[in-house]
Amino acid sequence: MPWFAAAAFCLTVAGLYVGFFMAPTDAQQGDGYRIIFLHVPVSWMSMFIYVVMAFWAAVGLIFNSRLSAMMASALAPTGAMFAFLSLWTGALWGKPMWGTWWVWDARLTSELILLFLYMGFMALQSAIDDQRRADKAGAVLALVGVVNIPVIYFSVQWWNTLHQGASVSLTQAPSMATIMLIGMLLMALAAWMYTIAVALMRVRCIILEREYRTAWVNDLKEIRQ
Amino acid sequence: MKDAFGLSAIYWIVHRELKLTMRRKSDAITPLLFFVIVTSLFPLSVGTDVEMLRRIAPGVLWVTALLATMLSLPRLFEQDYADGTLEQLALSPAPLSAMVVGKVVAYWLMTGLPLALLAPLLALQFYLPTTSILILATTLLIGTPVLALIGSIGASLTLGLRGGGVLVALLVLPLYVPVLIFGTGAVDAAASGLGATANVSLLTAMLLVAGFFSPMATTAALRIALE
Amino acid sequence: MNWTNPNEFFAMGGYATYVWGSVGVTVLVLYAECLFLLKRRKTALAHVKRDAALGAEDSK
């Protein structure tokens, strides 16, 4: 786990260096586009974590293994945080580029709903006192959510084309310079490493909190000191 | 009693639920009153401009119907859970999923269907033209069962929890988004000359998918709650 | 290298509020998460220790 944390740190430094020092100023967006180095990785992560969470939830439900259920609940707060950051950086990017903080675009709306889904998952788990029930109920909810994400995305997209409100096209991505891509991929990798480190750390906390009576926990060197 | 799909069990449950609701009429009437009162508040708060009311009508009616459905969701399983009936039903030879389907059907007959029937009347308050009213009623007829099906997942997940009502809202509302979009979208699409067929068929598709999957999820959640 | 002096770097070509606003909040949130996590771990460890100590006393 410290290795993942260290990797996350190094990759972040490298990514930020590439993003903020090496990548040239964008012709259209000036230096404002540099938010991309934060925005894209956190958005990817927020979506990806939900899928991973649902995967662990399914494994926990099918094989009745407690550890995978713990993994799912360890991932949720980090995922919610990334979803929030994605909205935040998106808003700060949107304001100077499109002149508005918020657009009712398919991606933005889906990201918002994704944040709500994370919130629901965490609220449900914390409302249930019985650990096993909390795990399983959360797992069912995560699976229902993962089925719904594509439906939500396409429905919002459809709705958006009907309403044709703000005619801002997010899809016309200008061909990206290689150096920008490298910076972004570095940052995405860093987000990966960060997530792994934090999730493992949290899962250890959860184990400690739940299994504090077992002998092997009492024999850990952290306890014996 | 060879009944692989539990059709007789579904019928029996629907019958029982309707009978029970008839004995506690206020349970069925409260969501409807809520629907009527809240929709009537809108013209009072945003003004009586005909054009504007016409524009917001589908959204207002849909959102209010959605909230009315959601408010009554905790009642779906709560009573049977509290008095142990649910446990008995889970132990009975009839499949639990059949029982879930029966309960959702009865629940829809008692809330969704009256809401959909009441909506055209309330739409008159918003000066909606007749064609729009018909489309609105159609989408509500197809959409409210989806709301009931998805809602049953939320209701079963939060069964017996403190603060269950608010939690249900948090779990279920994000999942209601697609239904809301297509439901209100149908009226707008018809008004702008695009025709509502696409929206209506997508809503129907959602109903079929939800009708297939959500009883499974609800059954799983109920078994977890009963463990 | 794009920047001739630090001021230019911090000005971000006029987008300072937006760029540093995102960077700042991201760092803040990540930092807060780590902090909470460390605190949670500490509490959990203390709890286990207390419990173990109590258990040891009981078995004496």
From TrEMBL, chain C:
Subcellular localization, as worded in the UniProt entry: Cell inner membrane
Protein's membrane topology: Single-pass membrane protein
Transmembrane segments: 15-38
Keyword Cell inner membrane attributed: yes
Pfam families with a match to the protein in the record: CcmD
Protein family per UniProt: Belongs to the CcmD/CycX/HelD family.
Main location: membrane
Role noted for this protein: Required for the export of heme to the periplasm for the biogenesis of c-type cytochromes.
Entry protein name: Heme exporter protein D
Domain of life: Bacteria
UniProt entry keywords in alphabetical sequence: Cell inner membrane, Cell membrane, Cytochrome c-type biogenesis, Membrane, Transmembrane, Transmembrane helix, Transport
InterPro entries named in the record: Haem_export_protD_CcmD, Heme_exporter_D
